[in-house]
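Possible regression after last week's pipeline update?

I re-ran a chain I had predicted before the update to compare outputs. Posting the input and the new output here so someone can diff against the archived version. Not blocking, just want to make sure nothing changed silently.
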Amino acid sequence: MIVSAGYNIAGPEVEGALLLHPAVAECGVVAASDEQRGQIVKAYVVLKAGYDADETTTRGLQDFVKQTIAPYKYPRAIEYVPSLPRTETGKLQRFKLRQSAQASVASS
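New output (post-update):
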């Protein structure tokens, strides 16, 4: 559960909304630390072929999530990755995404 500015946000719900977008091949959603909100929703996204990892795509994904589920649940940070960390059985390793999110905050 991600708690952002007092709102409880379920990561799998945001993932489900992102996966409905035609540009998204797969994604993982975790909490990232934020000074103002405590935590924010951060999405790691693997794009389908033919889509660019740019500001236009980011804005489009954010707007799509706002229209699909509650507007406050949209991912405020989106990082494009070539692949997501998975176990040998194919399960998403969210703890590795959380570590990456914390590392990017620490380096900022």
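Follow-up from reviewer: compared with the archived run. The beta strands are 2-4, 7-9, 24-34, 38-47, 77-80. Marking as no regression found.
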